[in-house]
Amino acid sequence: ELAYRKEIVRADLINKKVGIRETPENIAKLLTRMYLKSEVIGDGNQIEIEIPPTRADVIHACDIVEDAAIAYGYNNIQMMLPKTYTIANQFPLNKLTELLRHDMAAAGFTEALTFALCSQEDIADKLGLDISATKAVHISNPKTAEFQVARTTLLPGLLKTIAANRKMPLPLKLFEISDIVVKDSSRDVGARNYRHLCAVYYNKNPGFEIIHGLLDRIMQLLNVPPGEKKGGYVIKASEGPAFFPGRCAEIFARGQSIGKLGVLHPDVITKFELTMPCSSLEINIEPFL
């Protein structure tokens, strides 16, 4: 069935949407050139357009307006500032994230993108923590055991990525810069996001010095000098259930704790089905905005 149909569109609407000032007669000519046979009718401002069966793409009046703009020539439409104040800008946190991604890649690390949801075991049991201590946001009706809670750390995602790529040549150097979610009763939604940077080094030797060097490089890029001076960063010996005793350090920058680095505990490594030593670093990058 090759039916023709007719649409009526006002010329002033086409002018307004495209941003031109053409007479209805000229617009009808432009549309006719686009295989939409048109003529001016009624009060001289309405255009009757015949849509042939060959133009299956014309569904709505806005498609006709687009055809008028194409026939007029996009490059011939006069540029002007919009009447509404809509000058966009990149979100500062995303800009910082993008800059860091480039330099992490330049440092020889490969970016991974992992799921924002994970199982309770991933963020608690496997890392030697209790689920209540993680402040994790729980999904009320999870479809699978893999997606029970929102992640509170990026580390399990990277370790699972390594477990899935054990055939790849060593060393494996991975990083991810993404959001984590924790409960926060002061927020209207009861939770808040933090932008974390996590990196892991997996090889025959733990490579703590490689992760430590990466931290120094990140701080150099963020213009944070070493030392306890105002605005500087230091690392202090610490303990964490996921880290090897005596091989863990807490990172303090700009007067606050931003994360930890160290060699992962053998229990954590075996729980993620890995067989080699692994060192990791995870920091919150929001204080550096």
TrEMBL record:
Q: Looking at its record, which EC class is this enzyme? A: ligase
A GO MF label = magnesium ion binding
InterPro entries referenced in this protein's UniProt entry, alphabetically:
aa-tRNA-synth_II/BPL/LPL, DNA-bd_dom_put_sf, Phe-tRNA-ligase_IIc_bsu, PheRS_beta_core, tRNA_synthase_B5-dom
Q: What is its EC number?
A: 6.1.1.20
User: What PROSITE patterns does the database record attribute to this sequence?
Assistant: B5
Carries keyword Metal-binding?
A: yes
GO BP terms, alphabetized: phenylalanyl-tRNA aminoacylation
What keywords tag this UniProt record?
Aminoacyl-tRNA synthetase, ATP-binding, Ligase, Magnesium, Metal-binding, Nucleotide-binding, Protein biosynthesis
* One Pfam family linked to the record: tRNA_synthFbeta
**Which cofactors?**
Mg(2+)
Keyword ATP-binding: yes or no?
yes
Kindly state one GO CC term assigned in the UniProt record.
Answer: phenylalanine-tRNA ligase complex
* Domain B5 as annotated: residue spans: 2-79
Q: Which domain of life is it from?
A: Eukaryota
Annotated protein name in UniProt: phenylalanine--tRNA ligase
